[in-house]
Amino acid sequence: MIQDILPHVYDNHYEEHTPDDDSYIMFVKGGRVLAEAKGEASNFPLYKDLKDYVKECVYLFSIDDKKYFLAKEYDSIPEEGYELVGLRDYYTYKEKHMAFTAVTAFQLNNWYRNNKFCGRCGKPMTRSHKERMMECRECGNTVYPKISPAVIVAVTDGDRLLMTKYNNREYKRYALIAGFSEVGETLEETVHREVMEEVGVKVKNLQYYKCQPWSFSDSLLVGFFCELDGSDKIKMDEEELSVAEWLHRDEIEMVYDGISLTNEMVIKFKENK
Ligand SMILES: [Zn+2]
Fold first, then answer.
1. Cα 132 to middle of ligand 1, angstroms
2. Strand (E) or helix (H) holding 100
3. Contact 192/227 with Cβ under 8 angstroms?
4. Domains 10-114 and 148-270 in one fold
5. Which residues are CB-contacts of 254 (< 8 A; sequence separation ≥ 6)?
6. Which fold has domain 10-114?
7. Ligand 1 mean position, distance from CA 70 (Å)
């Protein structure tokens, strides 16, 4: 999956740092992150080469012994020798940890951008020096990075898996049932509710599989396998979904992508492991 970057090691322990010569600097613009214009062999820019562009930067995380900083404020983005690369385009890069690095920087950049002012009193927020937290010195409000739990559910019935396609979304391929947890709800309750809402069936024997940070949507995806309980008759939520159907293992055509939890769960079922 995208976060499995071994042999590289991601360290998100927060401390105040200043960039050194080997530090990388992340310029995020929309859904794109700046890289060297060397195609799939490129890396992120070094701070020492682009420091004149950076008005304010903040330490993000380390990977191995390299520190990554976010260009939090900048006037312009260098054009010559660099290019803004779409988050998903990093999947094709030679260095496989770059996609994870780019999307994690993207999530933190969104969080900083969305928390410039206090939601309680409207005064500017200040960065904590001790931890990754924004605080309001006026009213004491504190804000931590947003991480929303959500479930991915593989509903099985013997050799069949319940597969769906989203309605009105760019992503047109098969997916599994998924949804965010509501306030006051356990993950297990989210599974039961989402399955009932999206396809109208009951499930039992929930088994936690794995989880995955999914920075594209500020979420932490939690994967469950479970079994059909009772009738297999699907009552599809037509606003959410365009397709919901039972597929036999042998009918599933998904190929391993090494990126998403959904993909890994479907392949695991298909291969009967
Ligand atoms: Zn405040």
1. 17
2. helix 97-114
3. no
4. yes
5. 173, 174, 263, 266, 267, 270
6. Nucleoside Triphosphate Pyrophosphohydrolase (3.90.79)
7. 25
Q: pLDDT under 50 in the chain at which residues?
A: none
pLDDT at 203: 98
Task: For residue 252, give both structure tokens.
Answer: 């599933």
Ligand 1 center from residue 12 Cα (angstroms): 27
Q: Among 3.40.50.720, 3.10.450.50, 3.90.79.10, 3.40.50.620, what is the CATH number of 148-270? A: 3.90.79.10
Q: Give the distance (Å) from ligand 1 centre to CA of residue 126.
A: 10
Instruction: Name the residue ranges covered by the structural domains of the chain.
Output: 10-114, 116-144, 148-270
What are the pLDDT digits (tens) for 18-54?
999 899 999 999 999 999 999 888 999 999 999 999 9
Residues 160-187 have pLDDT tens digits of 999 999 988 777 789 999 999 999 999 9
Report residue 142: phi and psi, to 5°. -125, 145
CB 35 within 8 A of CB 79: no
